[in-house]
Amino acid sequence: MSIGASIVCVADGKMPGLIAALRAGIRYPVIEMRPEDAPTRLAAIQPAAVVVDKPNTDLELIETIVGRVGKLEGPYVPVLARSADGACDQPSVLPIAPDAAPARVVARLTSTLRVRALHATVQRRAAAQDGNGKVASYRPGDAPEQPTVLVAGRGGGYPALTLAVGERAGLIGALGFETAQRYLDGRDIDGIVIGDGFSGRAVEGFLDTLRSDVRFRDLPIVVADSRIGPLDLDQLPNADRVRGGPDRVMAHLLPLVRLHAFGARLRRWAKSLESKGFVDADTGLLTCNAFVHDLNRAIADCEKRTASLSLARFAFEPIDRHTSLDAARIVGRLVRSTDFACQDDDGAIHIVFGETDLKAAHVVARRIASVLKHTMLVPDPDAPRLNPEVSLVMRKPSDTAETMLARVHPAAIAAE
Q: Can you tell me the distance from the alpha carbon of 308 to that of 306, in angstroms, rounded to the nearest whole number?
């Protein structure tokens, strides 16, 4: 994190409430600027974040600020803007609700600064390991995959909401909060839309569940049903009520979910660096070379102890990158502590079942295949579910990693 970085507040007039809240709740110095001065003064300082607090956001000003920030080296610099229309046509600008109190602005800024701190940590570790620290900057349009959004609803507006989300992000639909909770526990979710069809008490109960679990407190959340009464959004810094159609909902939500997906990628990147490159930063599974290395070591250990070892390959029809990565991350949550896995270049997933004979491996593999079939994303929601093709072998006395991989598929991975 750059020394001397500051929080820059851009507004037409004095904003004592917001400035006081920022100085009390943020550890950075706070600099006030008028809109006409911002383009020039921003070039002379190193902002940690920029907050544009104007009732009617000047799009030209936002574009100028985003351009200035985009030229900065170092960790991510969030730009937050108060706007009724959400993202102001800038995918990297984080929305602030027009009526958001200073405490809500500080809470959202604090959440985004955690991503900045994580980005700085990953850059520093990368520089220490390879000497150049080449870690991607935050550019929403260059993300390796789409974010994943959970839409919960059962009313008349639910189909339009899911259509709008599915056009711009990975979609997971839930007709009830119990189903939504299961998805949250078992999937990588970057944002939630709560549509119509629920009572105010049910929505408040679901929000209370999110508040009580630290894993979900930073999730972007939009409550899109205007008929529900007041809601307590405290301790949920990225939660808002958005009135309007599905396009308005998505304009508000997308910058937040893209940033959440970037934060999740940074956490996988950090694990990859901690493992010295043995863990793939995209999937969270082992890299192919690390997988082959560990498979050879597991085979040698089994020979000493005459233990069982099985290998499964889960292959898919041609799928897009987002769906492929989603499948790998689901597997990462399903494998046991004695198992390890990787994803091949063709998208197939290999899993080693330690201390497992062929009969038991069949049971485990069927369960994993069933979970993948019923939960992994599909590019077309109207298309049939993807059914992975499973190949399974058990270690023979003469086997090596290469021979076991060849038996599940002739063109399977091999160590470089």
A: 7
Neighbouring C-beta atoms of residue 284, cutoff 10 Å: 21
**Could you tell me if residue 1 is inside a domain?**
no
Same domain for 19 and 72? yes
Alpha-carbon distance of 363 to 336, in angstroms, equals 13
The DSSP string of 295-333 is HHHHHHHHHHHT--EEEEEEE-SS--HHHHHHHHHHHHH
Q: What's the CA gap between 317 and 347, in Å, rounded?
A: 9
Supply the range of the domain harboring residue 339.
275-408
Strands (E), 83-206: 93-96, 148-152, 170-174, 191-194
**Pairwise CA distance, residues 189 & 184, whole Å:** 6
Q: pLDDT tens digit string along 274-295?
A: 888 899 988 999 999 999 999 9
370 and 287 part of one domain: yes
pTM of the entire structure? 0.88
Kindly report the number of other CB atoms within 10 A of residue 307's CB atom: 14
Report the candidate in 243, 242, 232, 241 with the shortest Cα–Cα distance to residue 210. 232
For 160-195, write each residue's pLDDT tens digit. 999 999 988 989 999 999 999 999 988 899 999 999
CB 170 within 8 A of CB 199: no
Q: Which amino acid is at 328?
A: A
One domain for residues 298 and 391? yes
415 belongs to a structural domain: no
β-pair type (221-223, 191-194): parallel
Q: Work out the number of other CB atoms within 10 angstroms of the CB of residue 5.
A: 20
Indicate the residue among 195, 221, 256 that finishes a domain.
Answer: 256
Helix, strand, coil percentages (3-state) for the chain, rounded to 5, are 45, 15, 40
Q: Residues 137-155: what's their mean pLDDT?
A: 80
Helices and strands counted in the chain (H then E): 12, 14
Single residue among 137, 170, 204 that ends a domain in this structure: 137
Q: Are residues 133 and 15 part of one domain?
A: yes
Q: The tokens of 80 are what?
A: 């937050």
Q: State the angle between helix axes of 358-375 and 321-334 in degrees (0 to 180), rounded to the nearest 10.
A: 130
* Amino acid (1-letter code) at residue 179: T
Query: At 181, which CATH number?
Result: 3.40.50.2300
Identify whether the C-beta of residue 45 lies closer than 8 Å to the C-beta of residue 31: yes
> How many domains are there within the chain?
3
Could you tell me the two tokens for 119?
Answer: 């980005």
Q: How many residues does the chain have?
A: 416
Strand-pairing partners, residue 311, are: 352, 393
